[in-house]
Amino acid sequence: MHELVVGSRLRVAGPLQNFPLGVGASRYVLLAGGIGITALAAMATALRRRKADYQLNFVGRTRGVMAYLDQLVLEHGEHVTVHVDDEDTSLDVKALIDEVAGSSAASDTELYMCGPIGLMEAVKHEWTARGLALPNLRFETFANSGAWATEAFRVSIPALPLEVTVGTDVSLIDALEDAGVEVMWGCRKGECGLCSVRVLDCDGTIDHRDVFLSESQKTTDTTLCLCVSRVATGGDTTRSSELRTLTIDLP
Known about the structure:
- The protein is an alpha/beta fold.
- It has helices at about 35-50, 70-75, 95-100, 115-130, 170-180, 215-220; strands at about 25-35, 55-60, 80-85, 110-115, 135-140, 155, 160-165, 195-200, 205, 225, 230, 245-250.
- The protein has a five-stranded parallel beta sheet with strand order 3-2-1-4-5, sandwiched between helices. Strands 7-6-12-8-10 form a five-stranded mixed beta sheet. A two-stranded antiparallel sheet has the order 9-11.
- Strand 2 (about 55-60), helix 2 (about 70-75) and strand 3 form a beta-alpha-beta unit.
- Helix 3 packs parallel to helix 4.
- It is globular, with a radius of gyration of 21 Å.
- It starts with about 25 loop residues before the first strand and ends with a strand.
């Protein structure tokens, strides 16, 4: 986009809806953190028109950066709960999920969320801890910047055999496709798990940037999602000038 000038012509596709709102739940809880409101504002409007039982929780650091706030309060009234960090009304994730779990419609309540990875991971943890139905927890992410700085690394596939360098400005899945490797994928955001592969070896630190694998799966480093995962030195400066190598097995 930085190369565009006045008069440039662009070809664009129509908008895609990859985060659909379900129909038929007894109750809906919407949770938006920051810019995540762009995905949930339309859901709230649709639920209001359906006369559904819903609650929109909007979280932000300050009111000044919370998009559409006044409009949402005007449109949804008591169906909106605003949580502002600098007003000491931050969201209590545990209390929110306790309220869902304690309601008579707990088994038929759907929660939709979009926002920072940390917030959504906290909700997922509390949701799972209470044994709530996982299909009823639905979310969209804007990707994860990872625990480590982006570094170049090598990926090796002994079964082909092939070794490819993954630069800092390209994803692992793109590097493989550029090298002619056919890879199954779906969302390219680390959500669906279609591109997950078996890890055979890694002499660096795997930076899992997906929200598909469980924490225990990420800890074992036996599987990763090709679309977002990377390899980093992980603070090891003894071989900082060398590229780490990830060895994988494709299905």
